[in-house]
């Protein structure tokens, strides 16, 4: 569909392409047992991709603690212990992971923005939903500083457009800023990308959803 | 904002795991622990004066992103995005050594980077 000449690459996605990208994405998820599924809304032809994750977190995420800016935190991921350097006090505190959170991610198509949007909800294992503040504390450190610059238009509580339940959402209004470079790069190499793979690889990790590297090579763009 | 990055700040001296890639061959033991990374700017991201770096395999994408952000003197409100294989953003927790194994060619890992004003 893209001409060999330098036409401006559209950062928008039509719904049909969204579905095709999701289909290809889901095929690979099946192959590597990455846990994604397609949820169709009964009686409609609308649906979304869904995945649930259990995420171990440090105790500081769940309890009221002053935010300390971390200079060079070794990555926690699945480690049992994390060393966090408190810049202000100069004290090294060892935070043990003693809690697991349940994150449920939904990839929806937004007709108004003409791009995908990431919705999610989070709760403790006992079902107690996380507050917006608690969710913010679990935003990946790589993004947290800048998110704090303008949190009101980034991570918001929204009613899920298809389920009508309260969810959190990563606001899509700046999608173009990180999609355009990737799409331009691919076009320069005469490659086509799977929009969902590229998009999710950027937005997912913000809220602890990692996309395995194999998606990058194994999932093709729709015809 | 100029297109050419200034010289590295003190952070580079504090950061022995990220160094200028030597033009000569380094010692064999050094070479195994570090991989060569070539950083390419995309869009209107500032171009780094030094594009080629030797990075310890265990270094994470986040750590490299922090390094680049400081090197380029990005503001707190600016987010750096890093892409591998042109159009895929590796997880910030991903080790560069793993990326090198998957996407390295000609002895180096090419990473593209761009910056965004504000998230959301």
Automatic annotation (TrEMBL), chain A:
Cellular component annotations (GO), alphabetically ordered: cytosol
Record flagged with keyword Transferase: yes
Domain of life: Eukaryota
Protein name as it appears in the record: Ubiquitin-like-conjugating enzyme ATG10
Primary gene name: LOC113054591
Biological process, per Gene Ontology: autophagosome assembly; autophagy of mitochondrion; protein modification by small protein conjugation
Similarity-based family: Belongs to the ATG10 family.
Pfam families reported in the protein's UniProt record: Autophagy_act_C
A Gene Ontology molecular function term of the record: Atg12 conjugating enzyme activity
Species of the source: Carassius auratus (Goldfish)
UniProt keyword terms in alphabetical order: Autophagy, Transferase, Ubl conjugation pathway
Automatic annotation (TrEMBL), chain B:
Pfam annotation, one family: APG12
Localization terms from the record: Cytoplasm; Preautophagosomal structure membrane
GO biological process: autophagosome assembly; autophagosome maturation; autophagy of mitochondrion; glycophagy; piecemeal microautophagy of the nucleus
Alphabetized InterPro entries for the sequence: Atg12, Ubiquitin-like_domsf
Keywords per UniProt: Acetylation, Autophagy, Cytoplasm, Isopeptide bond, Membrane, Ubl conjugation pathway
GO cellular component, as recorded: Atg12-Atg5-Atg16 complex; autophagosome membrane; phagophore assembly site membrane
GO molecular function ontology, one term from the record: Atg8-family ligase activity
Region (Disordered): 1-31
Known partners and oligomeric status: Forms a conjugate with ATG5.
Function: Ubiquitin-like protein involved in autophagic vesicle formation.
Protein name: Ubiquitin-like protein ATG12
Gene: atg12
